[in-house]
Specification:
Elements (H helix, E strand, L loop, with lengths): L6 H9 L3 E4 L4 E3 L7 E7 L2 E5 L2 E6 L5 E2 L1 H6 L6 E4 L3 E7 H4 L3 H30 L4 H16 L14 E2 L3
Parallel strand pairs: 6-9
Antiparallel strand pairs: 1-8, 2-7, 3-6, 3-8, 4-5, 4-7
Helix pairs in contact: 4-5
Length: 168
């Protein structure tokens, strides 16, 4: 059985959700808190940071924030901060994730993140075996860290497909 994400069904599903606005500089999600919400980017751009480290900048409509917190029943692991005025569809995670369309969307987000991280780890192993300089390896580690936190079209530096950010 092949699982196929139905983009039209997903867009229809989120179009039913309430929308919230956040001004540039405003925190959308706070590291260490539990909101029970999924935030789906409608417009704008955000930064995803843990501590003082920025993992990603996201500007792709449809990017999802808060999915790992919801799935693991854990606090958000990073801050999501609006880089410009943003709008988000807001969903109660427990309710939305009961819907097969939404659950498949989030599953694809997470699967793409794992796939990209696996590719990054393979590249890192190759670099280590070939004796690449420490600076190049550090850069590769930063890239892998970013891949684990953000993969998809919403990840400005790379990616294609469905977006998602685990620490949020």
């Amino acid at each position: 059985m092949t699982l196929i994400h139905d983009a039209a069904a997903w867009r229809e599903k989120i179009a039913e959700l309430p929308v919230t606005s956040h001004a540039a500089g405003e925190k959308v999600l706070h590291e260490g808190t539990k909101t029970g919400r999924l935030m789906i980017l409608k417009s704008g751009a955000v930064s995803v940071t843990k501590g003082e480290v920025e993992f990603a900048q996201v500007n792709e409509p449809g990017a999802v924030f808060g999915e790992l917190s919801a799935l693991l029943d854990a606090p958000h692991g990073a801050d999501v901060v609006a880089l410009e005025d943003c709008e988000f569809y807001v969903a109660d995670a427990a309710t939305l994730l009961q819907d097969p369309v939404a659950l498949l969307y989030v599953t694809v987000v997470l699967a793409r993140r794992i796939d990209a991280a696996n590719q990054g780890l393979l590249q890192l192993k190759t670099m280590l075996e070939s004796g690449e300089p420490r600076g190049v390896i550090d850069s590769a580690l930063d890239t892998i860290e970013g891949l684990l936190s953000a993969v998809g079209t919403g990840f400005i530096r790379a990616g294609a497909g469905v977006s998602g950010y685990p620490f949020a």
